[in-house]
Write a structure and sequence with these properties.
This protein is mainly β and about 220 residues long.
């Protein structure tokens, strides 16, 4: 069963809602796409006004929004499919089974058999390597001796929850691998939206500027 995840519904007003779904994505307008755990993990679209519609009646995960199309893994056959934002016929993109994938700037789908928490920045892939005690890798090379519990990135930085330091948020320079403690709060579910880092800490939803400073509580979890 998926864990709860922090989702921003209205980006402009920071209105948030708890979903049980772990696999979510959102457009710049605030429309949310998610795999609805209450409805067999079907791919669902939620509007700003709260109305919802199923756009793909298949159990899905690893949802990615790219160039006005949604890409996802069908939980039944573990293959990557795509559909447009209003639904319609899904198209198979990768025939071999996979558990995670990302899409580079050219629209190419990339997978790593040993990857967990896979993300992409400037067409470089970062992930926790399942075959190396979940150490942080960049593409096929060990990048740093850290084990990220959660991972996200923006511009020249990675943000991760450090398993070796109570799950506190660290920021790592992707050019030098230098890293500093960014937030002294144990965190889960790192989301980056409009120059802010959103996360869950204990029983609260939090917001923290990527410029640093103190976190702001924006709701209960």
């Amino acid at each position: 069963m998926a864990n709860k995840a922090l989702v921003v519904i209205d980006i402009q007003n920071d209105i948030t809602k708890n979903y049980k779904e772990l696999f979510i994505n959102f457009s710049n307008t605030g429309v949310v796409f998610f795999c609805d755990e209450s409805n067999q993990n079907h791919l669902t679209r939620r509007e700003i006004d709260g109305s919802e519609s199923v756009i793909a009646k298949v159990p899905c995960q690893n949802l990615i929004l790219f160039n006005d199309s949604l890409y996802y893994i069908n939980e039944k056959d573990k293959r990557v499919y795509s559909c447009d934002l209003s639904g319609g016929q899904s198209k198979i993109q990768i025939k071999q089974a996979t558990t995670e994938f990302v899409i580079n700037s050219n629209g190419n789908i990339i997978t790593f058999a040993n990857a967990k928490r896979l993300i992409i920045i400037d067409d470089n892939c970062y992930y926790a390597n399942k075959n190396d005690s979940y150490s942080l890798y960049k593409n096929n090379v060990k990048f740093a001796n850290v084990i990220p519990l959660y991972l996200n990135g923006s511009d020249n930085y990675l943000y991760y929850c450090n398993s070796k330091d109570n799950g506190y948020i660290y920021r790592m320079d992707i050019q030098t691998a230098a890293n500093v403690k960014f937030c002294g709060e144990s965190a889960r579910f790192l989301h980056i939206i409009k120059n802010n880092l959103y996360f869950v800490s204990e029983a609260s939803k939090k917001k923290l500027s990527l410029q640093g400073g103190n976190s702001e509580t924006i709701g209960k979890y």
